[in-house]
Design brief:
two-stranded parallel ribbon; seven-stranded mixed β-sheet; alpha+beta; disordered C terminus
Length: 201
């Protein structure tokens, strides 16, 4: 929290709780954690990447939401292929590849029914020319993706290289149903989190 004073403390606490629960349920201990706060408008830098070993903030920057999740602000989320909406919850960042958007990073959703179709939906971290301050000045918001957390082309390599190979990505939104049902947010119920993990992995 001290290294990122502008992040909502409750969001950060929720992200750390979910990550701890995932590790206690069998997920490999990550070295880094990315937090995306989708309750903020897209004009704000709402992506943070933390080094969990040192507690340092490695990066804070803009990140896009899906075009059917909202305009300036995101309000709708989905796990459905073709929805063009973002999904929330805890993800594991997996392997890198070069695709139509260049250097990109595949994400695996760890929460059944919430984000576990991320790989099938090709929800990945990639660079985009519509994620930058110029777009904000021109349109009053950054551009929107097909559901991917797209980042500025200027920082995509740093984002991908910091998260590849099993780091955790936590996308937050105050969705009451998810907050009350997620196995990773109720770690007193270890069995539920464990079952969720086995099902999705």
């Amino acid at each position: 929290g001290q290294s990122a004073p502008k992040i909502d403390k409750q969001v950060l606490k929720t992200a750390f709780s979910a990550s701890r629960c995932a590790v206690s349920s069998g997920v490999d201990m990550p070295d880094r954690l990315a937090v995306i706060d989708f309750s903020l408008p897209s004009t704000e830098e709402r992506l943070w990447i933390f080094d969990l070993n040192t507690g340092k903030l490695l990066l804070r920057d803009l990140v896009a939401h899906g075009k059917n999740s909202g305009n300036l602000e995101s309000t709708e989320f989905s796990n459905v292929e073709g929805s063009y909406q973002s999904s929330i919850g805890l993800f594991r960042a997996s392997e890198t590849y070069y695709g139509k958007h260049g250097y990109s990073l595949r994400l695996d959703g760890l929460e059944p029914g919430i984000n576990d179709l991320a790989r099938q939906r090709a929800i990945v971290i990639h660079g985009a020319d519509y994620v930058n301050e110029d777009w904000i000045h021109k349109y009053g918001r950054i551009g929107r993706s097909h559901g991917c957390p797209a980042v500025d082309n200027q920082v995509v390599r740093k984002v991908v290289d910091n998260l590849k190979g099993g780091q955790l990505v936590f996308k937050y939104f105050p969705d009451q149903q998810w907050l009350h049902s997620s196995g990773f947010l109720k770690c007193d119920n270890r069995t539920l989190a464990g079952k969720n993990l086995q099902k999705s992995g």
